[in-house]
Design a protein that fits this description.
six-stranded parallel β-sheet; binds NADP nicotinamide-adenine-dinucleotide phosphate
Length: 294
């Protein structure tokens, strides 16, 4: 019986639910395997631990890797080829090996879109499921923001991307080169609020364990009326941003659904079998995850 050696590259990884999630996926397919955490600090010099890990993948010792913060874009120079979605996003969240070549894929994009559609439906916001005329603000301009933006652009959204480093937002906008995507500074959020937004996506780690008081939307600024809030952060489940949204009577969700879906898509790419993402999601939800546990 094949035994799958899978894992996650990132730093730090103390908050990761991925081993639990992937074990549930493997179990749902009756496959044997283990999912390890490879916590490797980023380094501007030759990153030998990273190179060694990728060599293990290329040699077949590992069957697949997920990529998370802070490697989603910085891993690109180490990859032999990209799937079309990873290319469009300029970010990778999974690596597969095909004929000894490392292939960078991005399942965050489809996972986000699939989950967003379900969440909008469940919140009775099907008006936002219709193409055209919908306005989104994405906070953060890193790897996850790129995946979210690639997906939203493909679905016809008008997007403003706001980052603390405006240069990073401008670089992202330039890379997508779309008339439907414009950069903003965090200072510009007030204007953005005044103009109206239908969807607010937090794609920064603000609010993530252990700094759970962080909130990507400024504390002094009320949230836009009627906005649907999607926080990619999932630990804690109720982030400061989600708490504010609920207090303001707004529909708001965390990133657990997206997390489960991208994990299921990764496993399908590595094993050729599709796990039950709902079982993976349920494993996360039924686990009494304590934010102090990390
Ligand atoms: P990343 O590539 O490092 O990008 C993070 C972005 O947030 C960058 O624009 C960064 O700006 C900004 N940022 C970081 N700290 C900030 C702060 N204190 N104030 C304002 N902006 C800040 O990370 P990522 O991979 O995109 O991940 C972002 C978050 O999304 C993480 O919490 C991750 O866990 C979550 N995520 C969830 C899912 C899911 O399935 N639910 C999937 C992917 C990611 P600087 O470059 O200036 O630091």
């Amino acid at each position: 019986m094949t035994f799958y050696h899978l894992g996650l590259l990132g730093y730090p990884l103390g908050h990761s639910y991925s081993p639990l999630l992937h074990q549930a996926g493997l179990n749902s397919m009756h496959l044997a395997g283990k999912y390890e955490l490879f916590s490797i600090p980023p380094s501007t010099e030759e990153n030998l631990p990273l190179r060694h890990l990728l060599a293990r993948l290329r040699s077949g010792e590992l069957d697949g890797l997920n990529i998370t913060i802070p490697y989603k874009t910085t891993i690109l120079p180490y990859i032999d080829e990209l799937t079309p979605v990873a290319k469009a996003s300029g970010a990778v969240n999974a690596i597969l090996v095909r004929d000894g070549r490392l292939v960078g894929a991005n399942f965050d994009c489809q996972a986000f879109l699939d989950d967003l559609k379900l969440q909008l439906k469940q919140a009775g916001r099907c008006d936002l499921g219709i193409m055209g005329g919908r306005r989104a603000a994405v906070l953060g301009a890193g790897g996850a923001a790129r995946a979210v933006i690639a997906g939203l652009l493909a679905e016809g959204w008008e997007i403003k991307v706001a980052a603390r480093r405006v240069g990073q937002a401008c670089e992202l906008v330039e890379a997508f080169s779309s008339p439907h995507l414009v950069p903003s500074s965090l200072d510009g959020l007030e204007n953005l609020r005044r103009d109206g937004i239908d969807l607010l996506v937090n794609a920064t780690p603000l609010g993530m364990h252990p700094e759970i008081c962080g909130c990507a939307w400024p504390g002094s600024l009320p949230l836009p009326p009627h906005v649907f809030v999607y926080d990619l952060v999932y630990n804690p489940r109720e982030t400061a941003l989600l708490g504010r949204a609920r207090q303001a009577g707004l529909a708001a969700v965390n990133g657990l659904g997206m997390l489960a879906r991208q994990a299921a898509m990764s496993q399908e790419a590595w094993t050729g079998k599709l796990p039950d993402w709902q079982e993976m999601y349920d494993a996360l939800v039924s686990e009494r995850v304590d934010i102090r546990r990390g």
